[in-house]
Specification:
Layout: E1 27-29, H1 32-43, H2 49-54, H3 59-62, E2 69-70, H4 71-85, H5 90-96, H6 104-112, H7 116-125, E3 134-141, E4 144-151, H8 159-177, E5 186-188, H9 198-204, E6 208-209, E7 215-220, H10 221-224, H11 233-267, H12 274-280, H13 285-294, H14 299-317, H15 322-329, H16 334-345, H17 349-354
Parallel strand pairs: 5-6
Antiparallel strand pairs: 1-2, 3-4, 4-7, 5-7
Helix pairs in contact: 1-4, 1-5, 5-8, 6-7, 6-11, 11-14, 15-16
């Protein structure tokens, strides 16, 4: 493999969701990343249980097949872990710790794929099922192909962590499934070189470009054409059928949850009754409650999330009195708002106003 950085036409890519979005409270993400974050912390003698509890989660919940978490919950746990462990390179460590089996059905599909290129295409296509907190696409480049990663929500301070976890886990899975000697052709990241920048070169074993126009992991054609030792057409066909069903179900659940959140957000300070929401969707209240339970949430929890998002925005970007904010959120008075803010954020409204804007806000 050449040590030269390949000549690739890099062009800036638009970041997804460059504004505060109430949907980041939707519990639609599998807890894969948080499972391995918790595991790495435990291996270092640190218990993330309290951090999970503050986000409304638990270690047991992370191991439930049906469990889904919101972007907000994931971000909160990651932020707490970075602060408590004091390791800015934690994303690299969490990614390196993973194996193909960590990705469940998607991991099995990767193993059963004919070539590395086919495996990468499958991973990008079904990345949502793996609990990714970034979005991906794959595109050809001279001499190979690249996976590009983009933020799902606005310029988060967690972007570096998420990117490092993502790129290092992809490389870890390939080394696990194909060969320990695997190395990408090059790594391009938009952030500046961190103090631990040497760890990139040691782990990825390829040229790394910091301050690039976009975030991409580049693969050379010889590696992409490598046959995977576990390739099996019959198993792959079974896995693809299951993944297709899972993705369809996941989209239906996400559409339901996000649709309800948007409806609630548009109607604040009035909260539409559940009966009205069910009728608008052509189902009974009981059916809607059951559908939400299958998504791992309740209507009351969605209302709480929408209010949380709006409260954070109003407290950190507006100079309104508390009674006015309470009225905008549909609370009876400022005292009720104070209690809710303390429950949501672990701090008072006045402390919220002294804080920096939230990571997901633009």
């Amino acid at each position: 493999m050449t040590s030269k950085v390949p000549r690739i036409a890099l062009r800036p890519q638009p970041s997804a969701g460059q504004h505060a979005d109430p949907r980041f409270g939707s519990a639609t993400i599998t807890p894969h990343l948080l499972r391995y974050l918790t595991l790495v912390a435990a291996e270092r003698g640190h218990d993330l249980g309290p951090a999970l509890q503050r986000a409304g989660l638990s270690v047991a919940a992370l191991n439930s097949v049906e469990q889904r978490v919101s972007y907000r919950q994931g971000s909160r746990v990651i932020s707490d872990a970075l602060r408590e462990l004091g390791d800015p390179a934690l994303g690299l460590a969490v990614g390196r710790r993973q194996r193909v089996t960590a990705w469940g059905l998607v991991g099995l599909g990767l193993l059963a794929s004919p070539t590395l290129y086919d495996a990468l295409r499958l991973g990008v296509r079904y990345h949502g099922i793996t609990g990714s907190m970034l979005d991906y696409r794959m595109e050809p480049v001279p001499g190979g192909a690249a996976i590009l990663a983009t933020a799902r929500y606005a310029g988060s301070e967690l972007q570096t962590f998420l990117l490092e976890e993502s790129f290092s886990s992809i490389v870890a899975l390939i080394r696990d499934a194909l060969h320990e000697d695997f190395a990408p052709h090059a790594v391009f990241v938009r952030h500046a070189r961190p103090p631990y920048g040497d760890e990139y070169a040691r782990y990825f074993r390829c040229p790394v470009v910091f301050g690039a126009p976009d975030d991409r992991l580049v693969f050379a054609a010889p590696w992409l054409e490598h046959a995977l030792p576990g390739a099996d057409a019959y198993t792959l066909a079974q896995v693809l059928e299951l993944l297709g069903s899972a993705r369809t179900l996941g989209r239906e659940r996400q559409d339901l949850v996000e649709g309800l959140e948007v409806s609630i957000a548009r109607r604040l300070p009035q909260v539409p009754p559940l009966t009205q929401q069910a009728r608008a969707r052509g189902m009974s209240e009981r059916t809607l409650r059951r559908r939400l339970a299958e998504c791992g949430t309740t209507y009351e929890a969605l209302v709480d999330y929408v209010r949380l998002v709006r409260a954070e925005e109003l407290l950190t970007t507006r100079d309104l009195p508390l009674h006015a904010i309470a009225a905008l959120l549909g609370f009876s008075d400022a005292r009720t708002l104070r209690r809710a803010v303390t429950r949501w954020f672990g701090k008072s409204p006045s402390e919220m106003r002294r804080s920096e804007p939230p990571p997901h806000a633009s």
